Amino acid sequence: MAKRVAVIGAGSSGLTSIKCCLDEGLEPVCFESSDDIGGLWRFKEQPEADRCSIYRSLIVNTSKEMMCFSDFPVPDHYPNFMPNSMIMKYFKLYAEHFNLLKHIRFQTTVRSVRQRPDFSDSGQWEVVTVDKDGREETHVFDGVLVCAGHYTQPIKPLSDFPGIDTFPGTKIHSWEYKDPDPYHGKRVVVVGIGNSGGDIAVELSRTCEKTFLSTRKGAWVIGRVVGRGLPLDMTMVRRDRDLINTLLPRALLNWIGERSLNQRHDHKLYGLQPAHRILDQRTIINDDLAGRILVGELVLKPNVQKFQGSTAVFDDGTVEEMIDAVILCTGYDYRFPFLPDSLNSGSDGDLKLYRRVFPPSLEHPTLAIMGLLQTKGPIMPVAELQARWATRVIAGLNHLPPVEKMEKIIERDIKPYLKRCS
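User: That's the sequence. What structure does it adopt?
Assistant: Structure tokens below.
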């Protein structure tokens, strides 16, 4: 009798996990809280609690050639960089081709995942779900693959900005942002210069009277297209570059990378110059940021020191009055509320996972967490590889090393992360 595996979430990681289960002779049952596949990439007019939420204009930063699943290329007529609507079409083609939809229970939310009383012998899990009509059901599974995503709990640090309670305008997180229409002719402060912050600030700068992008640290910015007009990831995510990165001193690699980006536009001149070196944190991918600064529609600002009513005061002493809205692009809290506290996390650095997949504390490796990592390139091929490995472990075809060895490897792997955060 085939082992039954619960797959939580029907986004990109969930879809490939279902397929990998089938490839290894497992019986997957996927629970998806919404009424469709797609996860992060499914645009909705209104954000929904505990689900991912994206803006209408979102375009992927990785090329179709590099981001596709290994056994299902993106159709030739699709653009190299796909908008969210076309990524959804690709997911639907993938799901139909491999007949995955019949394994998904839509509008079914996972309430809890707990070890069964006999877990030390069976390695089984008790999964409690509730459907759209409020009916609760308890299931028993031999394995669990958590594919719930980690852009569902927005961090809204209003307390970091003294006087924010006196601000009369709109205050939202980027999770709530959909399009620039409500901000036409207004003066807006965007806080945070990640990929979302850059995208939203650029988009608003074409509609608003004035857009201010506030950043504490600055950022290294690169475009989607690099040498000879090729996609960034196709050029940068290569074995020969990895070899060079291992052979050359880190200081030299930093100098080369920073010099290359500064030749495109001088980061200090544009107010983008960060304190960190280019290899210490992720670069920001944005094609238009420098151009919008150059024409004066987007103004770079340091951290917001405080608010005084509709006036924003910045750390450099500059003041901007008559601010109508603040959009916080301040990241997400990485939590899985349905998991036991011992398997939960407040950020991707807190939850220790062997090879970013398996909690080493479990007596049986029958639960794995997919996609909880940041990659140099596209996430989907990595999630597919994770799912291939995890399903083989659950099926008993592959085995994990002893706990002591896993913990040593985890400590070694998280050192670079801790260094970047310090």
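DSSP finds eleven helices and 18 strands in the chain.
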